[in-house]
């Protein structure tokens, strides 16, 4: 694997070659990744996988025309041919009035912030196997667990670099580790499954394998013998594992492409109240060793913590340079970039701020409702906000979570759901997107 400096130089080199081939402007990304994955099942090693991948992506501009190409052939001759091909493609492409690099005066200058994302990424197959076995053993030891889908452990490290022809060049490295277990309870047609996993940038930050495994086993056994729920309108409480998906629907609706194409249910909502007044949603790319932390965005712009929703009010769109130009606004530092294609937008470490009450208090006045722990399918319309998804979870009766239920659907409209949402105070930073337990009033629940 290349060093951070070597990766930056590799990206700069392909930009120079593109300019020499006739590009008016260019940017390039270089990604170098290695990963090691171990899976076990029923106490025995099932698979060991290792991958190594290095890829260059080049975007060139000839006037307002552009083209993007990528390659994993990193020899000098191949890169020269790639650059020439990209310029030839751009000359034949249609003009795009909004195309171009990020504004030069907005680029990140100086050293990128240090976010403690990399511990070297070294882990042996033996140590990963030991961790995966320990997680599965702990899950299988929970009374009521009858079978296993296995345990898994992984380690990875990546180096990512970006260079542009108008003065930006930087790179950073990040490591990652994961540990999981998935088991079953019951038999035959009444069998149920659940899982637990944890991810971290540094290996010492991973939860203990025994904790992860026990959680997987207990979650699975709790779902045994699910009943059916009577249809009707009722409060729906989302477990943090699934509640964070609601934030994903918000981000899709406020991305630059959705707004410029007018395909968002929040199209006219900037500066208005879209959530209840107690809701604040933040994006923090500078979170130390965060799972999605980054020192700069996919166009070389600086990034900073952002309140996307403040006390229920929608404060910003998420814009790359192209969508910002089209809207007459400034890019927001949320551009993201892969080796192929033009930039899109994404958040970094996104979370909904915790509310004021614990989950038990949040559900204490619910006479009849449902606590959702699993969502199935993707029945969400980003244009209208209509929402309908299969679900499983537990009944809420007289303020208490009681028996498991399955094969039901929850439905509503995201605009109404956001305004009827109340967060609990149990936020934990476990994933790239995090939310506390969430209560949404007046959803339609239908038995399958």
Automatic annotation (TrEMBL):
<dbReference type="InterPro" id="IPR047657">
    <property type="entry name" value="PmbA"/>
</dbReference>
<dbReference type="InterPro" id="IPR045570">
    <property type="entry name" value="Metalloprtase-TldD/E_cen_dom"/>
</dbReference>
<dbReference type="InterPro" id="IPR002510">
    <property type="entry name" value="Metalloprtase-TldD/E_N"/>
</dbReference>
<feature type="domain" description="Metalloprotease TldD/E central">
    <location>
        <begin position="122"/>
        <end position="224"/>
    </location>
</feature>
<feature type="compositionally biased region" description="Low complexity">
    <location>
        <begin position="123"/>
        <end position="133"/>
    </location>
</feature>
<feature type="domain" description="Metalloprotease TldD/E C-terminal">
    <location>
        <begin position="231"/>
        <end position="446"/>
    </location>
</feature>
<protein>
    <submittedName>
        <fullName>TldD/PmbA family protein</fullName>
    </submittedName>
</protein>
<dbReference type="Pfam" id="PF01523">
    <property type="entry name" value="PmbA_TldD_1st"/>
</dbReference>
<comment type="similarity">
    <text>Belongs to the peptidase U62 family.</text>
</comment>
<feature type="domain" description="Metalloprotease TldD/E N-terminal">
    <location>
        <begin position="26"/>
        <end position="90"/>
    </location>
</feature>
<dbReference type="Pfam" id="PF19289">
    <property type="entry name" value="PmbA_TldD_3rd"/>
</dbReference>
<dbReference type="InterPro" id="IPR036059">
    <property type="entry name" value="TldD/PmbA_sf"/>
</dbReference>
<dbReference type="InterPro" id="IPR035068">
    <property type="entry name" value="TldD/PmbA_N"/>
</dbReference>
<dbReference type="InterPro" id="IPR045569">
    <property type="entry name" value="Metalloprtase-TldD/E_C"/>
</dbReference>
<dbReference type="Pfam" id="PF19290">
    <property type="entry name" value="PmbA_TldD_2nd"/>
</dbReference>
<feature type="region of interest" description="Disordered">
    <location>
        <begin position="109"/>
        <end position="133"/>
    </location>
</feature>
């Amino acid at each position: 694997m290349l060093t951070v400096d070597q990766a930056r130089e590799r990206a700069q080199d392909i930009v120079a070659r593109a300019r020499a081939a006739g590009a008016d402007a260019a940017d390039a990304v270089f990604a170098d990744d290695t990963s090691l994955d171990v899976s076990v099942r029923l106490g025995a090693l099932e698979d060991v996988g290792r991958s190594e991948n290095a890829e260059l992506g080049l975007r060139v501009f000839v006037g307002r025309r552009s083209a993007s190409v990528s390659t994993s052939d990193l020899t000098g001759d191949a890169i020269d041919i790639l650059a020439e091909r990209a310029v030839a493609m751009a000359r034949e492409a249609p003009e795009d009035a909004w195309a171009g690099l990020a504004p030069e005066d907005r680029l990140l200058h100086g050293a990128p912030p240090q976010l403690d994302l990399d511990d070297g990424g070294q882990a042996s197959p033996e140590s990963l196997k030991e961790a995966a076995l320990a997680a599965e053993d702990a899950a299988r030891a929970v009374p009521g667990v009858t079978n296993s889908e296995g345990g898994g452990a992984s380690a990875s490290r990546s180096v990512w670099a970006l260079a542009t022809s108008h003065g930006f060049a930087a790179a950073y490295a990040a490591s990652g580790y994961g540990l999981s277990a998935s088991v079953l309870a019951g038999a035959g047609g009444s069998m149920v499954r659940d899982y637990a996993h944890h991810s971290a940038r540094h290996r010492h930050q991973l939860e203990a394998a025994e904790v992860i495994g026990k959680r997987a086993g207990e979650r699975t056994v709790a779902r045994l013998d699910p009943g059916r729920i009577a249809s009707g309108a009722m409060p729906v409480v989302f477990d943090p594992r699934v509640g964070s998906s609601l934030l994903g629907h918000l981000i899709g609706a406020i991305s630059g492409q959705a707004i410029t194409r007018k395909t968002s249910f929040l199209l006219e909502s900037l500066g208005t109240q879209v959530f209840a007044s107690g809701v604040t949603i933040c994006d923090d790319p500078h979170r130390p060793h965060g799972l999605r932390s980054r020192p700069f965005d996919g166009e070389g712009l600086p990034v900073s913590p952002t309140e996307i929703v403040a006390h229920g009010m929608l404060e910003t769109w998420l814009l790359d340079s192209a969508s910002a130009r089209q809207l007459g606004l400034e890019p927001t530092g949320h551009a993201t970039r892969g080796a192929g294609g033009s930039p899109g937008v994404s958040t970094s470490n996104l979370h909904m701020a915790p509310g004021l009450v614990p989950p038990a208090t949040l559900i204490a006045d619910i006479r009849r409702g449902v606590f959702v722990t699993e969502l199935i399918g993707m029945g969400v319309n980003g244009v209208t906000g209509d929402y309908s998804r299969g679900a499983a979870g537990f009944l809420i009766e007289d303020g208490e979570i009681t028996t498991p239920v399955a094969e039901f659907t929850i439905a509503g409209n995201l605009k109404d759901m956001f305004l009827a949402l109340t967060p609990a105070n149990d936020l934990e930073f476990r994933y790239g997107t995090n939310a506390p337990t969430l209560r949404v009033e007046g959803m339609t629940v239908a038995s399958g």
